[in-house]
Amino acid sequence: MIRRLLLVAAGICLIVFPSAADDGSGPGWKKIFDGKTLNGWKALENPQAWSVVDGAITGRGERSHLFYVGEQCGNCEFKAEVKLNKGGNSGMYFRAKMEPGWPAGYEAQVNNSSGDWRRTGSLYQFSDVKEQLVPDDTWWTQHIIANGNHIVIKVNGKVVVDYVDAKNTFRTGYLALQQHDPGSVVQYRNLMMRTLPAGKQK
């Protein structure tokens, strides 16, 4: 009986706390940046704003959004290491429409010290973080989990947003990186995604 209870408890832990989900080593994770080129990525405007520098996708210059065109995200996880200059502003888009300008879609904010009060980790305009979680000019990890209408954002492994979008505003679309303005310099490396099973609405 005790052995059976232990096995049941272990099964619950596996369901609630997936062991390899966060570090990118578990099943289903796929690298979406080769560390050398922008193959698989496309900017609809100001493509010159993007380059690969020291193994990282680097945004610098005029406003531009760089879309990953390999596959779309419905229920998925999206993860990257990020570095941003002082006063810089960027974002990790998911379920986004591929269009010029400011694309429709969810944005996980990347902003530590710019004039926009919505800081790194915010689900922009849905669930906003006001405190600065990350120092300027340092690498951090940002991890997005979009499962049905339930969205979780982690910064350096800590959950900073756990939000249920009752309207399920954006259901599928592209992943994208944002170069916000000429004063911003952002770097992304170790970009990965993973497709999740169809999520239940909450």
Written account of the structure:
This protein has one helix spanning 2-16, and strands at 30-31, 41-43, 50-53, 56-60, 64-73, 76-84, 90-96, 106-110, 140-147, 150-155, 158-164, 173-179, 185-195. A hairpin with a 2-residue loop joins strand 10 (150-155) and strand 11 (158-164). It has a single domain (23-195), classed as Jelly Rolls (Sandwich). The model is unreliable at 1-20 (pLDDT under 50). The chain is built from one helix and 13 strands, in the order αβββββββββββββ. Strands 1, 3, 4, 6, 9, 10, 11 and 13 form an eight-stranded antiparallel β-sheet that branches. The chain has a five-stranded antiparallel β-sheet with strand order 2-5-12-7-8, with no helix packed on it. The protein is mostly beta strands.
Write a short abstract of this structure.
This protein is mostly beta strands. The chain contains one helix and 13 strands; from the N terminus they run αβββββββββββββ.
Question: Can you say what the CATH homologous superfamily is?
Answer: Exo-inulinase, domain 1
> Which range does the strand content fall in?
35-45%
CATH topology: Jelly Rolls
Largest beta-sheet characterization: 8 strands, antiparallel
How many angstroms does the end-to-end distance come to? 35 Å
Question: Unreliable stretches, pLDDT < 50, 5 or more residues?
Answer: 1-20
Q: Per the principal axes of the C-alpha atoms, what is the gross shape?
A: globular
Structural class estimated from helices and strands: mainly beta
Number of helices: 1
Total strand segments: 13
Cα radius of gyration in angstroms: 17 Å
Helix content: under 10%
Secondary-structure element order, N to C? HEEEEEEEEEEEEE
**CATH hierarchy class name:** Mainly Beta
Output mean pLDDT: 90
Number of domains: 1
CATH architecture: Sandwich
